[in-house]
Design brief:
The protein is globular. The mean pLDDT is 90. The N and C termini lie far apart (58 Å). Helix content is 72%, strand content 0%. The protein has 3 domains: 91 residues, Helix Hairpins, CATH 1.10.287.1080; 79 residues, Orthogonal Bundle (Helix Hairpins), CATH 1.10.287; 49 residues, no CATH class. With 267 residues, it is an all-alpha fold. Keywords: Hydrolase. It is an enzyme of class 3 (hydrolase). This is Nucleoside triphosphate pyrophosphohydrolase.
């Protein structure tokens, strides 16, 4: 299906027409025609992570393209939904517009704007709960979220109905307890039991981060970046000596790791 000759050079209508052309059963792209919601979903998650990565790196020159890729995912799913008779892209736009208006009565309604960000967050969650109706407290939190992010959302949701430790001290006590259980039973547990215990430990770590107002996913991403950066310095210094990590040993690499740490702190 050729693009209309009068199609504007920019804008969402152009993107929608391109998507329809890609999915056209007669003249479209064979790969695109074969896709379905399940096969495209991993790409949607990947594009969302690439947006977050560009923001994390403050790569503003890349962010425009990454946001375009993410928008294309929304258009892709909407095209498939339209073909199946579920909904259209305008329906998606209408739904999000209606939701934003309903959840911001202090902007689009008569509620006072004289509220703290914390109170507005509570109001937002109250409106979401009203929309969920009779659903259970933890319903609606996507299972496909990164595990630490989902743990944080589960804990926040439970905390709003009073299921939470009142202080960080109790979370730290639980963290020590879970770590002790892993340490004491690591040689006697089955792999499945050990996996469960490690999961419990990570869940408490997410809870500790929440109590300290730290995003555990962001904290772990930063730790990953730091590890990558420092290990790269180890490889650089080994290469200067004509060696690769496989030619080294733990003592040498550990000393270089400490050198990399010192180098960063000196900046």
């Amino acid at each position: 299906m050729p693009l209309p000759s009068d199609l504007p050079p920019t804008g969402i209508d152009r993107l929608l027409s391109i998507m329809a052309a890609l999915r056209d059963p007669r003249t479209g792209c064979p790969w695109d025609i074969e896709q379905d919601f399940a096969s495209i979903a991993p790409y949607t998650l990947e594009e969302a992570h690439e947006v977050a990565d560009a923001i994390e790196r403050q790569a503003w020159h890349e962010l425009k393209g990454e946001l375009g890729d993410l928008l294309f995912q929304a258009v892709y799913h909407s095209q498939m939904a339209a073909e199946a008779g579920h909904f259209t892209f305008p329906d998606v736009v209408t739904a999000i517009c209606d939701k934003m208006i309903a959840r911001h009565p202090h902007v689009f309604g008569t509620d006072s704007r004289d509220k703290t960000a914390e109170q507005q967050t509570k109001d937002w969650e109250t409106q979401k709960a009203r929309e969920r109706g009779s659903l259970r407290t933890l319903d609606g939190i996507a299972a496909s979220l990164p595990a630490l992010t989902r743990a944080l959302k589960l804990q926040n949701r439970a905390a709003r109905v009073g299921f939470d430790w009142p202080s960080t001290d109790q979370v730290l006590d639980k963290l020590v307890e879970e770590a002790r259980e892993v340490t004491e039973a690591r040689d006697t547990l089955s792999q499945a039991e050990l996996t469960e215990e490690i999961g419990d430990l990570l869940f408490v770590m997410a809870n500790l981060a929440r109590h300290l107002k730290v995003d555990p996913e962001a904290a772990l991403r930063a730790a990953n970046a730091k590890f990558t950066r420092r290990f790269a310095r180890i490889e650089d210094w080994l290469a200067e000596a004509g060696k690769a990590p496989a030619d080294s040993d733990l003592a040498e690499m550990d000393a270089l790791w400490n050198r990399a740490k010192a180098e960063e702190k000196a900046r």
